[in-house]
UniProtKB/TrEMBL annotation:
Gene3D superfamilies cross-referenced by the UniProt entry: FAD/NAD(P)-binding domain
EC number: 1.-.-.-
Protein name in UniProt: Flavin-containing monooxygenase
InterPro entries: FAD/NAD-bd_sf (IPR036188), Flavin_mOase (IPR000960), Flavin_mOase-like (IPR020946), FMO-like (IPR050346)
A single GO molecular function term of this UniProt record: NADP binding
Protein's UniProt keywords contain Oxidoreductase: yes
Similarity comment text for this entry: Belongs to the FMO family.
Keywords tagged on the record: FAD, Flavoprotein, Monooxygenase, NADP, Oxidoreductase
Enzyme class: oxidoreductase
Cofactor: FAD
Lineage: Eukaryota, Metazoa, Ecdysozoa, Arthropoda, Hexapoda
Length: 421
């Protein structure tokens, strides 16, 4: 493939890294992706604890909490013959593998290669890479960098009084793998987000009793799990249990922390001039471009979004500037744009922890990226399906995966029960 001579380093070969690699190659760049695992797929690769030094958060029996109709890329969809919309994790991995095969990406991916250090050097990027298999080190120089290392690898553990005095078993959802591990036990699950609700549902078939601690208002329905009791947030732990905010107490054998993850970039040198303050990564233009070094893009920081579609949009946004089809605003203008975004979030009472949260704002964000870079936006039908699915994985957990979606055109879809399909 003929290139324009500009070298692009893609860090990671998961959902974000694969589309960064594919789009870079299509724009005539000399791109290469480095993946520290032995296969592509990122978080969708299932590994047993202790099986690898590097492993994902994937667990047994996981099905997607978004329909496959929004989980494809703009130019590559899931096979229509898959009947259910909410597919098992193995189908997602298979889809990513087929995407790589379809666009002939394998020859540009170096597996078992770990990025050790990234630092700016004379308007380029000096990158040290470890070849894990041969235990050798390589230095490469690149013009552009896509950071696509994901954010489901560094568990975020809350600092709750008395946690060190608790004598039972403690586990973050990152390490959770199988529900029968909790057979006949009493479990406290902390957090009622997507993973907290899903794991609670899985282990409810085996555990004797589950306490689900959260601060959601309204509370999710757990009637279909009769052995689940909802609790307020934990005030402090004791040796065998906890005291909750309402001063009730419970005892339990296990704690599962479904409390999210930290954004972490251990390979970025201090010279890169990015900071992470309570999961607020800054300074970034439009949540992805390093303002100090705008030849670096971080893909996939926004959450409560449509993942693969938004990753692809961010990549195409960055490439519009990397290829000079668009000129970046001045540094001052990019900082002003960042401050405006921060001020809007401050007015809504959002903390640093939620600096990259989108939710209902995601559609404005997509519009902003597409208009700023002069690129095609995510199709309206994708946004409409996302709106239809909003928070159902929390509030309609027992039934929402029974829906089947079918995209009719760029604007419209139909939905019907899976069993009548």
């Amino acid at each position: 493939m003929a290139t324009n001579g500009k070298r692009v380093c893609v860090i990671g070969a998961g959902t974000a890294g694969l589309c960064a690699l594919k789009n870079s190659l299509q724009q005539g760049m000399d791109a290469i992706a480095y993946e520290q695992c032995s296969e592509i797929g990122g978080t969708w690769v299932y590994t047993k604890p202790g099986e690898n030094d590097v492993h994902s958060s994937m667990y047994e029996g996981l099905r997607t909490n978004l329909p496959k109709e929004v989980m494809g890329y703009p130019d590559y969809s899931y096979p229509s013959e898959i009947e259910q919309s909410f597919v098992p994790s193995a189908e997602v991995l298979k889809f990513l593998q087929s995407y790589a095969q379809h666009f002939d990406l394998s020859k540009y991916i170096k597996l078992q290669h770990e990025i050790i250090r990234v630092r700016p050097l004379d308007e380029k990027w000096e990158i040290y890479i470890r070849d894990i298999k041969n235990d050798t080190f390589i230095k490469e120089i690149f013009d552009f960098v896509f950071v696509c290392n994901g954010h489901y690898s560094m568990p975020l553990m809350p600092d709750i009084e008395g946690i060190d005095s608790y004598k039972g078993q403690k586990l973050h959802s990152h390490w959770y793998r199988k529900p029968d591990t909790f057979e006949g036990t009493t479990v406290l699950v902390i957090g009622a987000g997507p993973s907290g609700m899903d794991i609670t549902n899985h282990i409810s078939k085996f555990a004797k009793q589950i306490y689900l601690s959260h601060n959601l208002d309204p509370a999710p329905c757990t009637d279909f799990m009769p052995n689940v009791t909802q609790k307020t947030v934990v005030k402090r732990f004791t040796a065998d249990g906890a005291v909750f905010k309402d001063d009730t107490t419970e005892t339990f054998d296990h704690i599962i922390f479904c409390t999210g993850y930290k954004y972490t970039f251990p390979f970025l040198s201090i010279d890169v001039s990015l900071r992470v303050d309570d999961n607020f990564v800054h300074p970034l233009y439009k949540h992805c471009i390093n303002i100090h070094y705008p030849t670096m893009a971080l893909i996939g920081l926004p959450f409560y979004v449509c993942p693969s579609q938004s990753f692809d949009l961010q990549v195409r946004f960055a490439l519009a500037f990397f290829t000079k089809k668009r000129e970046f605003p001045s540094r001052e203008e990019m900082f002003a744009d960042l401050e405006k975004d921060k001020e809007n979030r401050r007015k809504k009472g959002l903390t640093n922890r939620l600096a990259h949260a989108m939710g209902d704002k995601q559609y404005d964000y997509y519009q902003d990226l597409s208009e700023t870079a002069g690129i095609e936006n995510i199709k309206p039908v994708i946004n409409k399906i996302m709106e239809d699915c909003s928070r159902k994985y929390i509030y309609e957990l027992a039934t929402y995966r029974n829906d089947r979606f079918k995209v009719l055109d760029d604007e419209t879809f139909v939905k019907f029960p899976l069993e009548t399909a």
